[in-house]
Each structure stands twice: as structure tokens, then as C-alpha cells.
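Q: What would this chain look like folded?
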Amino acid sequence: MIAGHPYPVPSYQAPVARGLSAQKLGLSLVWLTVASSSVVFAEPAPFDALMIVLVVLLPLLGLTSFSNPILFFLFAWLVIGASGLFASTFSGILDVSRNHTLISIYLSLSAVILAAFVRSNAERHIHVAMSGLFYASVIASIAGVGGYFGIFPGMSDLFTEYGRARGLFKDPNVFGSFIVVALIYYLHGMVSERARKSLIMFLLAGLIALGLLVSFSRGAWFNAAIAIMVYGYVQFIVASTHRLRLKLVLIGAFGLCTAMLGLMAIMQIESVADLFQQRATLTQSYDTGTEGRFGGQFRAVDIILSNPLGIGALEFSRPRFSEDVHNVYLSMFLNAGWIGGFAYLGLVLTTLAVGFRNALRPSPHQGMLIILLASFAGMAAEGVIVDTDHWRHFYILMGLLWGLALTKNNCPPRAIS
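A: My prediction, written as C-alpha cells:
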């Protein structure tokens, strides 16, 4: 059958067993940490301080479970980090390159800890983490939409940038990408819930979609399109009857028609229509030409081929080019050399393979696995046009996907009917 609705949001039930007050505190801290991931007005963000505490605290509280695959996950990130630190020695400004790499290492450790956290008790822990993530997405969307349409007097400048919604982030592109996972979750709720709850999911999905629209982020739109297609494809495969597949198709058609009608309605606002027309193109003026984004990527390839050990993080944009590479995979080859670049690319592809294989297996967590797989696939695709190596939700999604895919509670595979 179609994978069921995973878990309610935004609250969760804390453990009630006696003698577990420290673990209760740990679970509450995880929820707060993930819920704070949408507040990135400045760096370091609140999420960073809280996550550093979790990296140390969760293993001490016995809230993590490491396995050989998770140790491989850790090893791959350590290879990438070590390669990046070595490559930073070739940078013109060592401190800048090294510090960027150290932040990358910290973020990768957060992904590993979240994976081990979810694996230790998937039923409870994925509930805690995803509840915080969906809460953060809704709050960020309310801030972004409210700021864009002037619902919060005197606060529009705080929640927007250059006429684009950015929510609680510094950048509209990060805001738009961040809320995609919530969009997939609420779309899943429309598919799997009964009529009353489906209506609530529909309204929440509409809020998220509106936030995504007014971010005017081409990368986030691309991310969402890939995530929706992956979600629909996997759900169609795991459906056990043609009736359920038909329901999925009908809801998809309904959602598409509703989105088109909503888009036509909002296009009646002249400022929205003008910016949408400007942004809804495959290329902008800064993309083309030898000094544009694509020209910079061709230069990056030449530098990568002639520098197998890398040139150090941020070194490309400093003396060589006025812009970043805008391609996380090319960036990792520049930042960490061929070893680190191939390790990063391999890790992303392995994550997709692990997620897809386990999303096809019937388990109590199949619905959430499909949501995480689709959301991460969108993030991985967006990395082709954006540098996502310091986007916190990339590491959150990757860690949660690994942890849930490797949980000991998954059922053995079966044939898909």
C-alpha cells in the first residue's frame, strides 16, 4: 500500500520511563536544535552552538548507536575534511580557507551524530527530529510570506531581501531550499491521511508553496520540482494496488491545478508578476559570458584538472574570479582536491542509493524514508547550480536519511506489487 503518514507535528511525546530525565533533556535539546535551524540571520547561528553540544552530549547519554555503515559515513567525511585541510595549505589566505574547512568538518560531524541518534531508536528519535524540522519550516514560511506581503508592520525588511522573501535566513535561496522538505511532508499527508487531516495538510502545503514562490529562488524551485518527482515516482512504485496509484495520480493532478490557479491569482499583483517573469528564466545576465556563472564553472574545471590536490576553500573566488563556483561538486574538488571531491560525490550518490533501496522496503518508517529521500534528492540536484556545502539542512537531511535507512527495525525487503 501507499506508505502511511509518518508522524504528527509539531509536538512529540517525551519518554516517560523513570530514571531517564537526562535522556529527556537530550531529546528536548535535539528538538530545539533542529527547530532553530531556520534562524540564520547571522553566523554562527543558534543551531551551531546547540549542535556542538549535541555532538558531545548525545553519545554520553546513550542516545546514539553506531554501526559499520555509519562508521563508513564518518570515515568518508573525515577523508573529505582531511583533504580540505591539506588543500588549504595552498591557499593565499590560510586562515580563511582553513576556517571554512573546519566549519565543514563540524557540519559533517553533526550529520553523523544525527544518523547515529536516529538509528538508536528510530520510532522515537525520528519523530523528535522531524517535528523540530517541520516546526522550523512553518515558522520560516510564515515569516517569509508575512514579510513579503507586509503582514508584519515595520518588519518587512527583516524577512525580505531585494524584494524576495528570506524568512529567518540571510539568503532567499537558502530559505526556499530549506522549506522543501516540509512541502513534501504535507503533500505526503494529503496522499495518506483521511479527508479532514488531508485538508489541514493541503493548507499547510499551500503556505509552504507560497513561501517557496515568493523566495523567487530558481535553485529552490528546481529543488522542489526534483523532490516532488522523486516522491511521486517512489510512492507510485511502492503502491500495492492500482486504486492507490490512481489516488496518487488524482491528488497530483489536483495539486498541480490548484498550484496553477494560485499562481494565476498571485500574478495579478504587479510586483509579484514582474519579479516572477524576471526570475523564471533558465539564465540571468550574470549567468552567461566569460565573466558569468557558467564561464566561471568552465574556469573551475581547468583549475581542477591542473591542481589534483586542490587550491583550498574560497580560494577560487578570491584572486581568480569575482563569484563562487555555484556548483558544490566543483567546489569540493577545488576545496579538497581530487580525493576529497570524488569522496564527496561518492558520498552523495551513496546516500541516494542507500535511501532509495531502503525506501522500497516495507517498514514502519517507509513514509518518512520516502520523504527524506525525495527531499535529499532535490538538495543533491540543486548542488549542481548552488554551493550548498555550508547549508545546515543539507547535513540534517543526510544524517536523518542515513540513520532511518540503517535502523534495526526495518523489515526485510519484499517484492513490490
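The beta strands are 160-161, 164-165.
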